Amino acid sequence: SLANQLDTELKQPPLYFAATHGTDSSSVELFRVLIQSGANVRFKDLNDQTVLFYVCKLGKNISMQGRNSA
Q1: N or C terminus of the chain: which is more exposed, having fewer CB within 10 Å?
Q2: pTM (2 d.p.)
C-alpha cells in the first residue's frame, strides 16, 4: 500500500515524513490518514529506529488520544 511505500533515498515510509515535517496538528492529521490506510507503526528504518523515536527526538506532540475517527 502507499501508506507503507518506502522513500527511495531514505528508505522510510510516509509516517517518518509526517513525524519530521509540518506542524503538530498537520502531523496528527497525516498520521491519522496513514494509520487508517494501514501504515506499519512498528517499521524500523536503516538506523533501526521506529517513527516514535523521531517523534520524541523532535518533541512533536502528535497524540491521537481523544481524536474522533473518520
Answers
A1: C
A2: 0.71
